[in-house]
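Ticket #4471: complex job returned nothing on first submit. Input attached below:
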Amino acid sequence: MSNAELLKKRIERERLARKQAEEILEKKSLELYAANEKLQLLNLELEKAVEKRTAELKSAKIAAEKAQLAEKEFLAKMSHEIRTPLNAVVGMANLLHTTSLNDIQEEYVDDIKYAADVLMGLISDVLDISKIEAGELALNESEFDLRESLNALVRTLDYKARENDNELVVFIDHQVPELILADKNVINQILLNLIGNALKFTTKGTISINVNVLIDGEGNSQLQFEIIDTGKGIEPEKLASIFEKYQQENKAIKVEYGGTGLGLSICKELVQLHGGKIWAESKVGEGSTFSFTVKVAPIMGNKGEGNEEVVDYNNQLGGKILVVEDSYLNLKYLLTLLNSWEVDYDVAYDGEEAVKLCAKEQYQLIFMDMQMPKMNGYDATKNIRNFSVLNSETPIVALTASALLEDQRAAEYAGVNSHLIKPFSPGQLKRVISQYANYQDKDNKKKTSKQGKFNDEEWQVLSEYFDGDTEHARIVVESFMSSNKENMKLMADYLDNNEFDSVTALMHKCKPSLAMVGLRELSNLAAEIESLLKSNKNNKAIELIDDFLPKLNKDLPRVEQFYQKLKNE
Amino acid sequence: MKGIVFTEFFQFIEDNFGYEMVDELIEETQPASGGIYTAVGSYPFNELVSYLTYFCKKKEMDPALALRLFGHHLFNVFSKNYQQFFKAQNGSFGFLASIDNHIHVEVAKLYPDAELPKFNIISQTETEMVMHYTSERKLHALAHGLIEKTLEHYHQKGEINTQVLGEDGSQVQFKITLK
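Support reply: We reran it on our side without changes. The output follows.
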């Protein structure tokens, strides 16, 4: 075979091979194209799936956030809902206290009041846990008597102590000031937890509560509390982690003693919030000592000598107070106090009414409930701040049952000057009023205690309502005497015309002033008449009114005598 | 059988005996494909057997030797075309182990119809590897040639011991001892 022929054969083979290769290439290209198409489709589907998943996650996140918010709102709302009737219980107990009670009754009222306070504390605890977790807990400092508060706390724990045959012993060093500026609730909560624990783990023993003053290098004072028990003690290895969250010594303790395991970690957070430290020492079988410190500011002077307790509010305020409140019971409590201090006031039952009143009259101070129908306190405050010519600068104090920081901020944002958290004591209300009152006549308010001139009944009135301030008492009695004549005339008119609603209102008005001049029996009678009229038992009411008038006439000379004595002071 | 084996076999024959020998193999054995191959196509295995049989008879050569030599040639093609597989390993044992684990996995993706031999590692130390070759093609001599060149590629010296396990020669044990 010639080379040329071989070459020709070879070329032919190569040509065919190339053709074959091209066919394979074409087929592979098509396959590749199809695969690519498929891949793109998959990619698109994947993108869609990712998009869908992202949207799902987003809406899940929004839903979760909404739920969290709803939970927060629920907490705030529930605390409000629970506090409102509880406020009424505390308020009514306070009012009951101002009536004449025998020793046993007084003890019962104290018990009611303290139980309500403890319940209020529990609600606060639940709120505190959520607030601590959200880092939202703020100190709410006020002046209070530590001895009184600690003794009251121990009294409520006494029954619990007796259950296990334990004895509670309190020792407060004489250097501890009578009044301190601190967060009473925080301190009580810490003590309640620690003493509660000590009682749980001790049987037939003693729990001592010691309070001492510590002065640091810079002259700042701290209070150191020690809760010493003679209980079973804590093992050293457990002691280190005892303040950590959800730590209980062991599972058996959880079963035997209950509790959330949050107690000590809440204590730790609260102590830190109050600028202090907490620690524990213990010996198994001998007992434990829990100690903590808190930063406090002592209040100079002693309780009862402070001039804020003895103020003539009308003189100071030089004008009216506006009370905006929709809850009947809360209003009754507040107005009774204002009446007893003879403070002039107007009442609005919702925000709209408040705004209307503010357009007509200039007030010295406005108490504003935040939760009201029609227009709430936030909107009413904003409205008054922005549009009221007469009251845009008037101090507004928010009356709120909510201890949530968030709510307080919202109120401040709306324009309130400060907060009075319900339930408040008469003293707290007094302090707020004096805070915004002008001290025009400080010198007139010197307290006198010349008991010798007054008989027992008179003295009781003096000390109870006027804290011995005879000048204040004189003004009150004087105004009673002048208004009484007129009131009795009005009463006769109303009765003649069968205007029972007016009689009801009159009785309501007379009630506190009768009590304040020492005519307690008549005051009670007036209250009874008022309630009978309100329930439309008019005949029975008229019977009592027939009783009421001669009694009043009989007692008036005594008031007159009292007035003369006051005048001669 | 993948076309690359045919194209490279012809290249191997041509390199050593000229294209006349390639032409003679085609003319004498009359394969169904007409002796026209592309590297990416697939062709009947028996055509390769016919070429090898004719060639060995003609040249009076042991088919095993011919296959070993062809293995050397094929290795040079592989190491040039698929450098990345060789660079990924730094010794012959590592490379041999990667054939089943990695290289053939990739080849199967590219050519789903390829019938690949199995290289199963039975045992391995620093200096000794025992490997089982399994293939219906019974081309263990080709594998032998490839292994020899692999050692050389990684500049390693060693002894390759071959032991046919079954009677039909479809399974063979290679014991490689490095020196």
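The radius of gyration of chain A is 37 Å. Closing as resolved unless it happens again.
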